[in-house]
Design goal:
The complex is a heterodimer of chains A (372) and B (336). By secondary structure, chain A is mainly beta. Chain A has two helices and 31 strands. Chain A is 5% helix and 47% strand. In chain A, strands 3, 4, 5, 30 and 31 form a five-stranded antiparallel beta sheet that branches. In chain A, strands 6-7-8-9 form a four-stranded antiparallel beta sheet, with no helix packed on it. Chain B is an all-alpha fold. Chain B has two domains: 166 residues, Up-down Bundle (A middle domain of Talin 1); 130 residues, Four Helix Bundle (Hemerythrin (Met), subunit A) (Up-down Bundle). The radius of gyration of chain B is 22 Å and the shape is globular. Chain B starts with a strand and ends with a helix. The chains are: A mainly beta (372), B mainly alpha (336).
Amino acid sequence: MRWMGIDVTVTDTGRRRFLGGLIAVGVAPGVTWADAGSPAFLSAAAQPDGRFVLCGIGRELDIRFTLSLPARGHAAAAHPLRPEAVAFARRPGTFALVIDCVLGTQMAVLEAPEGRHFYGHGVFSSDGRYLFTTENDYEAGRGRIGVWDAGHGYRRIADWDSGGIGPHDIALLPGSDTLVVANGGIDTHPDTGRTKLNIATMAPNLAYVQDGVVVETAALPAHLHKNSIRHLSVGHDGHVAFGIQWQGDGPAPVLAGAHRMGQTPRLMTAPEAAMRDMQGYVGSIALSSNGRTISVTSPRGGVLQHYDVATAELLASLAMPDVSGVAVMGGALAVSAGTGALHLIGADGTARERQTRLQWDNHLVAVGTTSA
Amino acid sequence: MRHICLTLALVAAPVVALADTRDDKIESIVAGHILPRFEALADGADALSVAAQQDCDPASAPLKAAYGTAFDAWISASHLRFGPTEVDDRAFALAFWPDSRGATPRALNALLADQDPIAASAQGYAQVSIAARGFYALEFLLFDDALSAESDARYHCQLVRTISADIAATSRSIQDDWTASYATVMLTPAPDGVYRSDAEVLQEMFKALSTGLQFTSESRLGRPLGTFDRPRPARAEARRSGRSAAHVALSLRSLRDLAARLAEGDMSNRLDARFDHALSLLAALDDPTFATVAAPQTRLKIEIIQQSVDAIRAAVRDDLGPTLGVAAGFNALDGD
């Protein structure tokens, strides 16, 4: 048995030593997120000294742990049971680190296979046995989903079609192992950084994947084909809220929507001035726990917007410089910004703020849910 | 922890104190930078179409010269990707590159194999795959060893004439929209207009500058560079016509002009010096198609040129951006 590069032979005495080792690295049954300080969220960040870290953030917006990363992170994936986090390098990174959040040690390194890079997002299966990562097969220009065995040292065990080009965010539908993937539609190649190679012909979609089979894709109307679907938030009832980045000229026609399998996507609308304030760009999205509100952030516009899912109309638009991460916590909404600000907005509209010295990166990832 | 009320300030467009020369800058850029470039493109493309009508032989010197002049004009305008160039994907219809999957030769080979009658007119041709249109498709027909020596000379000739006429029509449409309306749109921002303020107009121009620099660094230089272990000289832009390095120079000269009109005082001089540095490194290279990216010595020179362009990008982002009210936050700049 091979674990973290150390060959372990399981014998009677060896087994005890092995289990002891497992407890030490925090993977034995019984070690939970509580042992890591019960963070409510994970977020990558940059420290004032320029070093990059992954942080656990508590319900009171307090920082529960800070772990070093070798380079700038993007999103993370939290194991549903064990205090393990997968921190992804920013696109087009080729590695992801599995971190023991109790000990702060590196448990495994996920390396993208030859010809692949990660997009910065991943999600665990509901039982925590598997990790799914969005990847670019960049010579073929096709999106892939990497499947890793979280119970066996994060061995790579399979590799599926994502149902489109440029898969970005990936999430799990509740009570199932159906994956939903935001295929942003944009073809890139690491030789040319993030240069977009196919804007004229891009065709984003939402793809639903069960056991490696794309069972449904949902696309926006043809005239919106330059709307890159990037980020996801899944509700308890299976609704999928999606955030968009507009690649066309002029103001974006729409930047968020909601979809449910078997139905047509519904698009959130806003008065033109409010839409323009978003600068065509949604950085993160969160669907409230009661499913009634979609919140989206635009770091470019420095704006947080809330939409009413029932009417598909804008509810409120708030200025927050360099805002990006957004995630739900019970009835409340947590928001992070590159300025170091953390906000917690309650269902009753009250808000709390904590200013930190960290630059919070792109996404807040809730711990204890299966969506990333 | 501090409790604050949710009635945070309602969003207002970012207002940035700018010198009162904002109007002058916009007028200088529209009249002195943008309009002359699209006029040169429309005129050059017309001349290309006329030359193709007169002689469609890939070996024709006048045709190749006209192609070069028109393509130069496009490269010098290719960073101005907003408004008229984006209507009906006109810019892509002129310039489908990078073509990472080889869609252009594939589409042209299919047309030639089928003798597809859609190539009979420019109007009809506007319906074909965008990869088979524009300067890069025409380059295959005029300069590619296989596609320029296509056996059926008559159909090949028709394709050259039609693509040239299509380029001319597209370029003229862009030019017409600029003179008929879009110049006014940029000069007279209004609350219900495409641009709500002078600041938004300048931000659009800034974006053209920064994305133009990014494209030259990442695509024009980055594609042939590939990686140290796997250099990709065959990916150099327009290498068949020997134009790869010339495109870098054309784009840098054009972007230098735009930067000089956006920046002020010392910053303008500093940016100008950076452009001069990059252009002089390029002039000293003497490798028109970046064919030597695989040789360590020359590769290093091309990497240094790319670094010099990236240094301009950093200066534009860090020094010029803030003066124009462009958000420079940790996440705003990351974009993913």
